[in-house]
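Technical annex, item 7. During the second reporting period the consortium partners agreed on a shared format for inverse folding records so that results from different sites could be compared directly. Each record opens with the tokenized structure and is followed by the designed sequence. A conforming record, contributed by the partner at site C, is shown below for reference.
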């Protein structure tokens, strides 16, 4: 929380992470299909496969040029660039190894997404909980303002009911609301 100014920014960032991971998963799934097509091209025609395979490999390299994963970049450098179209068995082994790496990367992305979604659920629960408590506090204040017969002690009790249970767990912008409430009472 110290990196983000408020809970809304943190929730939005978690949503961006999930969206980006889903896009990468789709991209890597498409790459795996191209790799599988290349492996099949080698199996179907061991002597004249190089043009189609080289075209697929160039498409894959173009797609992963901006990748941030060390595993994907290493795969590009140590496997995809070594596919020559001259030796079918070596090329096939490099393609199969590349497919395994992309499968592992997709599994990592799924794990990151699942972990991030758990964070997001917790953050949304925290936000909802703090919103409900603040709304309850405002409703008690509104009730006090609507009926001048209620005592000032009940007004203070509404403030205490809101403040005590969650003071240490509050996130922004609720901390700002707390400071404003304290200023109102001169604390």
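Designed sequence (site C submission):
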């Amino acid at each position: 929380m110290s990196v983000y100014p408020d809970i809304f920014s943190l929730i939005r960032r978690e949503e961006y992470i999930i969206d980006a991971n889903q896009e990468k998963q789709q991209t890597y799934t498409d790459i795996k299909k191209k790799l599988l097509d290349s492996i099949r091209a080698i199996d179907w025609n061991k002597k004249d496969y190089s043009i189609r395979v080289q075209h697929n490999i160039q498409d894959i390299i173009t797609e992963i040029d901006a990748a941030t994963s060390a595993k994907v970049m290493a795969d590009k450098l140590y496997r995809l660039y070594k596919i020559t179209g001259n030796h079918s068995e070596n090329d096939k082994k490099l393609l199969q190894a590349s497919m395994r790496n992309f499968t592992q990367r997709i599994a990592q992305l799924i794990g990151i997404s699942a972990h991030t979604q758990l964070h997001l659920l917790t953050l949304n629960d925290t936000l909802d909980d703090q919103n409900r408590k603040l709304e309850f506090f405002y409703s008690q204040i509104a009730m006090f303002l609507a009926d001048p017969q209620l005592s000032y002690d009940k007004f203070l009790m509404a403030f205490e009911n809101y403040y005590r249970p969650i003071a240490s767990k509050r996130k922004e912008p609720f901390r700002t609301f707390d400071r404003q409430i304290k200023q109102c009472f001169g604390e």
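Residues 163 and 178 are 8 Å apart (CA to CA). Residues 121-185 form one domain. All partners now use this format for quarterly exchanges.
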